[in-house]
Specification:
The complex is a heterodimer of chains A (392) and B (163). With 392 residues, chain A is α/β, with parallel strands linked by helices. In chain A, 40% of the residues lie in helices and 12% in strands. With 163 residues, chain B is an alpha+beta fold. The chains are: A alpha/beta (392), B alpha+beta (163). Chains A and B meet through helix 2 and helix 11 of A and helix 1 and helix 2 of B.
Amino acid sequence: MDYSRYVNPQIAAVPKSGIRKFFDIVQTMPGAISLGVGEPDFVTPYHIRNAAIESLLDGETQYTSNAGKISLRREIALYLQERYALTYDPGSEVLVTVGASEGIDLALRALLSPGDEVLVPEPSYVSYRPGVVFAGGVPVPIKTEECRNFVLTPEELAAAITPRTKAIILPYPNNPTGAIITREELQKLRDVIVAHDLIVISDEIYSELCYAPEGHVSIAALPEMRQRTIYLNGFSKAFAMTGWRVGYLCAPAALMDVMVKIHQYTIMCASTQGQVAAEEALHQGREDGYADVLAMRQSYDHRRRLMFNAFCGMGLSCFEPLGAFYVFPSIKATGLTSEAFCERLLKEKEVACVPGTAFGACGEGHIRCCYATALDKLDVALARIGDFVQHL
Amino acid sequence: MQNQQVELLQLLQQDCRMPLEKIAVMLGLPLEQVGQMIDSMEKHGIILRYSPVINWDKTDRERVEAMIEVRVTPQRGEGFDAIAKRIYRFDEVKTVYLMSGAYDLLLLVEAHSLKELGYFVSTKLSVLETVTGTATHFVLKRYKSDGIIFEDESGDKRLAVNP
């Protein structure tokens, strides 16, 4: 049967995630070390897991309200206030989603009419562009430059805006570059965003993994921005809770109504135990000063320095990442393309990385390496990469 | 204590054989400064020594461990310190804590055999003049010690490439 005539051609035309490219090969190599992961190497802290177990034993196996347990939404509102000076009403402006990924999808579907353009600074996470296409919109990539710390400039932003531009996705701290954005840089972008009346979809899933002393700043905390920002965050990265699939989305009530409508009909609610676990994470965090998060961040920070230093030592030009848990070195000096580099590195040295091109065409000449990997493995992987580069 | 010092101690506690160069990179500090910090902490008795964590159960060495609760009469002017000192000087005694609650001192004692341990309690510990009572609990299995799980089977469960 020829299914191609049934399948939506627009969806069929979207390529599969470039991150998964080498997955099948890696699986056949027992000695391979993967720096291709996009999740913490910590297991969810025990007290969080235990809260979910208790909830199951108590028989808490029903749906929650569509927007999520109100007790969790209250915790989220308190957390955002305390950590990022953001004020959201838990009753009408917070929605618990199935990971921040669902949040991206909801935001785009709620906003876009066919042909609407969404600006996507790149290199950035693989889901944005397909998400825009699935929602009927047109993704417009904006290349960010390494020499400007991979931060979008107001000029680059203004140049990409057309009468069809409806929104911009703001991906900081950034996966894959590890770039962060400062308050001053955000303020400059804000002027353009307000002048052109755009909505910002701010993906701040890595906000807790910011290694700059001044910490993370949310664009929604800037004057005039709360009303035009859809704020996305979740528990996966900060609390090592990827498999729980719990994220959240905050926005002014009128926008939220639309997103809740989609969520209500498609998802109903995020998993109950995931929500219980998330509530425990935030509740205890408030009590103990987010000790879990701080300990994990410190450990990532040590490994961040180690990996950055190792790439610099190999003679590769490397941007110093100050967020997330990736290093995005340039491999241009080797003369190989990103894809060829990754393929040969895997076959010859059994180390898996992700080609920069998985995150947009402008990622060519780079590879993404995740340092959320056990120290002993990291040492071996970096030695192997060094050896590989030296003998090219 | 400075944050950096705590971070350094935590790294050493995880692996005290980690090369200083690597520690310096991970903490973002000059190598020389890390060396000085360690020297200073050794000098001030913050770092006492560098010893491995051993799972003796995996060796063929015969060994018995017991936790012993000890009730004592504190001495005028000395409190518990003098009697604690008399007890911790025995080689069999590996750990001594002064406790709040139903007893005063908690000892972790190690011997080659049950007989040897019994001999220690009956002829050396109980007979000390200020010791008024003991209760010996034999250790059957050590699951976790100093934050280290002895038979940890967790490991990396992540897919090699994701998401």
